[in-house]
Fold this protein.
Amino acid sequence: MRRVDFWQFLPLPFSGANLSPEVFEMRRKSPFRQFLPVIATILVVGAVVAFYGLTRSAAPTENAPEVQEQIALAEKLLSQGEPEKALRAVEKLRGEDGERALGERASLLRLQALDAAGMHEEAGKAADEFLAEFKESESKTGVELLRLGSRVADAGLSNPDLLAAVEEFIAKHPDHEGTPRLELALARHSLRIGDTQAAQRRLRSAMRSNDLDRDVLAEVQREMGDLNLQRLVSGVDGDVYTVKSGDSVWEIATKSRVTPELLMKVNGISDPKRLRVGQTLRIPAMDFSLVCDVSANSLTLYNHGEFVKVYPVRTGRVAGTTPTGDFRILNKKQNPVWRPGDGRVYQPGDPNNELGSRWMAFEGDILGIHGTIHPETVGEYASNGCIGLTRGDVEELFDLVTVGTPLTIKGEQDTSRARVIPAPDVPDPLSDSQLARAN
């Protein structure tokens, strides 16, 4: 029997001896030699997998202190209205190559930052990834909402499938805190296709939400206010009056408890002196009231107790100088004179006349609703106690409310929501000659 040398089964480089042709051929045909490439490949692949596994396991988990700290930073930045910075903070957790997996909390935060930054296409993709990876997440409904909202913001609601998906979500989750934003999107879509009734229905539904986000509420109220005023001025709600001999716009408006300006606007009257006997006028059904909320610096107009429009205002810089309680509009003046109480008098047209172009007194002739020459201060605490609006808003409101309109002022100064603006130095009034040149 032939003796077999152990060395013959080793690879050729390890033989360490001169081999006879017979032994060389035996070794070349050995099973070990033939399967060596396969074995080498398995070893190399195993080493690579092991190395990758070690590096992945070496990456910090979401519960690691340094990860928690980074997530907390991103959440703080997002709450402060800096979504781009929040997104950068989250992206650091993904590593330089962006391949490191994020946990549920960080993934949700990344999605929210993308949405807040207006990166709607990316937010939609991130939502898809989140729902695929975290199927049992408690945030699933909120992520579905973000996905729909991102797609609506990116492509609108012209796609019937997306429109149907939005309506389905609202039907399933009518009380979800994010549903009003979708209602707002549907309302705007209805406006684009000319369906104002559907738009108003959607906006009313959104406003009924108990936990409406402040920014969304402001958008809903703005859209609703514009629609309500359009309907009011159209004159579709109200009575019809036939002009008689001796009638005037002022007399008809007074009897109808509307302002002459509104009566003329509703009926397209450009010259109040040119009424015709027998002319038919539409008389809007008005029963206005006003509510000023000092904490929110808002002035809301109601008609028959129903919301019409909300206006941003400025109120007293010193707490309590805008009084709370129930008042009425006592008088109305166009282009009022301003007497700040120090002996100076600012005439209409003076660029330093703080009252602007309109005045509606509610306490004596000392406090009132008026315009301002500093529109940038509207929304802040910046007056001496009056309620100040931008010029466009105060002129619009002036044409709507009559003397005697109820006004309720409530709330108290909230400096977490608005700033206190110091009183500016006011130059002396212009002389008559300077005023004539200025106008």
In short: Confidence is low (pLDDT under 50) at residues 4-16, 54-59.
